[in-house]
Give the backbone structure.
Amino acid sequence: MDRADLTPDLRGSKLAAAPGPRLTRSRSGAILDLTHAQVSLTGRKQMSSTVNASLDDRLAAWFDGDPVAIAEGDAMWREVRETAPVYRFGATTLITRYDLVKELVHDNARFSSDHSRKGSRADAAFAALTTDEERQAFREVMRFESHFMNRNDAPEHRRLRGSASAALTPRRVKQVTDAIEGHAQASLELLSGAGEDVVDLIPFSYELPLRVICDLIGVPAEDRLKIRDWGVALSKNRHGTKAKELVGSYHAWLEFLEYVAHLIERYQASADGADQLVTMLMNAHGTDRLDPEEIASLFVMLLQGGHETTSNLIAIGTYHLLRTPGQWQALVDDPSLIPNAVEELLRYVAPAQTASRRSLVDTEIEGVEIRKEDTVIGSLTAANRDPAVFDDPEAVDVRRTDAKRHLAFSFGPHFCLGASLARAEANVALRTLTQAFPNLELPSEDVEWDGPWNLRRIVELPVSLGR
Ligand code: HEM
């Protein structure tokens, strides 16, 4: 294997060369073993193994978004669950057992959703910032994000969720859902247009949810690329733990706020504006009325919550269907299995990997002490593969009868507001792909993974269209 294949990060920090164990220091400082390194199909990046690193080092690397640790995240979470269902990891408590994760996300009385600007992880992130600019960005980004409904508890959460639900009228949602089919066909062009047999599936899986979320927000087609770029910058910020990404996200926020102000003006002046989400939110009465900053926050929340999650479900889900013998063919032969396949992929992929909370009280879970202000993170990945709930949980099975019990959309007051839209998109994506490319295949299972930790993704997914 050529050293030049290593990512710049890994190349720069290599501690030892072959023969013998190949060690490297990850971005987080964890020492990782590259002995089982493989070259990805594209040859652009190195996949390697972390198997010999300690669990805490792998967790540190995973939270740091290290591609090596991200690639092996599912096995790592299984190990965390098997080691202890409530696991102390530095300032954070990790919950991995299905029943405990369900209780955690449901119990907003003990565990607050306001976790990213307060609590042990937020305090550690803020303390690590080194410049005034970074600290200013932290405060401002956290202030914007404090309007996200998923960062609020009752009664404020009820107000924000109620306003959004009231504006997402059945008529509005139907308009958006009816258009998914057309967007899927248009996105398909990105695959078949080039006339190649082996193509990258990611542009398809990225484009379809982007179009849908832009429809929902009322973003005109010509502005979609701007939205995509802001979405990338915003989603890079992981609760302020990375200074550069935090500052980038702050600037994207400012631009996005300006854009939403422009959208409000535009729709208030136009005849068809009355039907747009932004106008409905602005014109609502009483407590349902949102101010422009709250509207911008809701849009960012919808964009962040609804775009990459759904893209990853489609891409990573298709990857697992193709690498598990018989699963793709089952959907080609019997499309009526697709809705259940979507549930199984939600279970298996868990596109939003975690749900975070902040403890409001001194308490304990399963005998493990949790102090007031501790950050507590539920792993939806680990819960969705808990053998106490799912038979043979590490297998992908589109005929699994209880797949729908997954926690991929969380549970309780914060259950995903876009679940039905995400399900509709994934159903249309799989129907479109199985119909267009019944012989779709993976030329290789080696793919390049990347973070951030909560939203891991496949960077390039080469597939053979088999036409
Ligand atoms: C496969 C795709 C998706 C997944 C896996 C997913 C996952 C989740 C999860 C796990 C939560 C709850 C987090 C918590 O308990 O703290 C959530 C909340 C939310 N999601 Fe989704 N989501 C997806 C798609 C969407 C889409 C398409 C939209 C919008 C159109 C959306 C909008 C929201 C909103 C607004 C919330 C906040 C709900 C609240 O706090 O009351 N999501 N989502």
